[in-house]
Design brief:
This protein is an alpha+beta fold. It has 2 helices and 5 strands. Strands 1, 2, 3, 4 and 5 form a 5-stranded antiparallel beta sheet that branches.
């Protein structure tokens, strides 16, 4: 009788351990699933916020990024059939980390086909986000020189 009691106790102990192992295994899978969801949300947020750490971005725009945006601002501000930016490039200065001054030459072709060269000075502020997208910049001033 004592032997039967000991065997019954041993069986219930083994069954109890199996049940605990099963619940611990389920909890581990839930934690793995939650970790994957957290990583997915974190990456999604980083991409949408424009942090771009995934694409190895440095954070602040370069002069070339500012020039690309400056060309877009000039194109949207000037009325001409054709707007060309000669290979001479641009001059860039910075007032602060986020405020850029760009000087560039432009060749404009009018409706009658006449061409003229002019220069523009743009003062732009970088607001954050992807550096070469116009929506992430604010045009503070544009002057034809």
């Amino acid at each position: 009788m004592a032997k039967d009691y000991a065997e019954g106790k041993k069986k219930s102990y083994v069954e109890h351990k199996k049940a605990k192992k099963k619940s611990a295994s389920g909890a581990a899978w839930i934690l793995v699933l939650l970790a994957l969801i957290f990583i997915f949300v974190l990456v999604k947020f980083a991409r949408n916020a424009g942090l771009d750490f995934i694409s190895n971005s440095t954070g602040l725009p370069s002069g070339d990024d500012a020039y690309t945006v400056a060309k877009d601002f000039v194109k949207s501000s000037v009325r001409a059939n054709s707007i060309d930016f000669p290979g001479s490039g641009y001059q860039m200065g910075k007032k602060t980390d986020s405020i850029f001054v760009i000087r560039t030459q432009v060749e404009l072709t009018g409706d009658s086909g006449d061409k003229r060269k002019t220069s523009y000075k743009l003062v732009m502020q970088y607001k954050g986000g992807k550096q070469d997208e116009t929506k992430n910049w604010l045009l503070l001033n544009i002057v034809e020189q």
